[in-house]
What does this fold into?
Amino acid sequence: MLGVEQPSSPSTLAPAPRWARWFVGAFLALFVVCGLAGLEAWPLTGWRLFADARQARQPGFQAVTVDRADRETPVPFAGLPAGYQGYVQVLRGFAGLPTAEQAAVCQAWAEAVRDRGGEVAEVRIYQTVTDVSARIGDRGAPPERARRFTCRPRSADAAG
Amino acid sequence: MPRGERGAVDSHRGPGSGRATLPLREAWRRAGRLPSARAYGRVERWLFAPGDPRRLAALRIGLGGLLAARLASGPYPELATQPPALFRPISFLRLLDQMPSPEVVAVLQALALGAAVLATVGLLTRATLPLAWLAALPLVAMTSSLGKVVHNDVLLLLCLVPLLPSRAGAAWSLDARQRPVAARGPAFGWPVRTAMVVVAGAYFFSGLAKLLHAGPAWVASGNIRWVLYASSDGQPEPNPFALFVADRPVLAHLVAAATLAVELGFPLVLWRPRLAWLFVPAVVAMHAGIGLAMHLDYSVMAATVLVVMVDWPALADRIVPPGNPPGGSPDPSGPRPVDVEERP
It folds into this structure.
């Protein structure tokens, strides 16, 4: 009935059990420590969402495929499967990878492009600096770029 | 020994206790009089105060349903085919050299999805909810193993944690149909309030990270403009929402200041529940704005906030007053209709 407290059974009147207090205490302590210290102990996290202040001149990387006529085409990451969508982080850490792992990354990207009908003789990785404050209409000006890496992935035939 | 020479131990013997009070116990008792200890006591009393079983059930249904929807639509089979060279594992997935195989992912997804659906409808809840969470954990970890933590699902997973050992199936469930109606009690309060602390903490720590890493420049510099310009330039077509804000420096500063204020201020909702009317729509609008301007999907995070912070039983009681079911006679044994949240 509206506004009338229902009689509770003895079990529902008992205070929260000790295990519940320990469970909640431990969970919230870990949650707070990770939040305060910025620790990543997934699924606990430091909650760094857009935490850095961006500058107008933004460093980055660009990966392109090159065909036999030396025409460059940006790797179409947006059209590749979910497993390829971490390319920004892969590119950022590319310089620190051992040579064999760098080659494996290039090979994976090249094969994905070939699977979609593209021709890949080389994969080139450029370091870029984009000044997003320099606008040309609704778009940013092209980035300054310098080639950092060139890989020559095996062809599908050679890989077999 | 004369009474005056007994020292601290005997001089603090409680009336009729017949037992000496140890110095440690007395120190603890004195510490309890400190402001910080009193505040801790108030928080603890708030956290473990009685709660409405229907509010906990609403969390089970809402969060369980969200988890089921994520598990049904997630990119897990696609991630399972990722070339090993692109694997950037997080947490326990570091034990693997590559993403789990498509076969393992299919079994985990079926198990997690089935258990999540059962937990949502409240069948064998004490088993199905933990099973759904455990089976979902490696799948969700896969989405964060591309080099960047996906916070969209993390809040959902963390808000489910306090529900795992709780009596979340005591109301609004198939389990509850075979039992007497559960009354308001301490067993139903702490899981809900712990989830509320997690939501409030998530936004507070997001704001805190901005202050610690960027400082006042997060608001005072062109930060938001440059983020939005870069995001628009990275999209196939220029984004009118991003450009609308980025082209107006004053508006960009206001958006940044409002974002920081909402994030840092969100815990006030725990102290003054009425402030939820301000902060909950604000964070939902913030995520909607990010979605429109940057095409980043934080829909699960926004939905988790709504599920946890809205008092769904109170809302249900406003629509259908208890004891006056539409077309039915008053039910005197119905549960207490309105859950009044105590303040910490």
Remarks:
- The radius of gyration of chain A is 26 Å.
- The helical segments of chain A are 10-13, 18-37, 87-92, 99-115, 156-159.
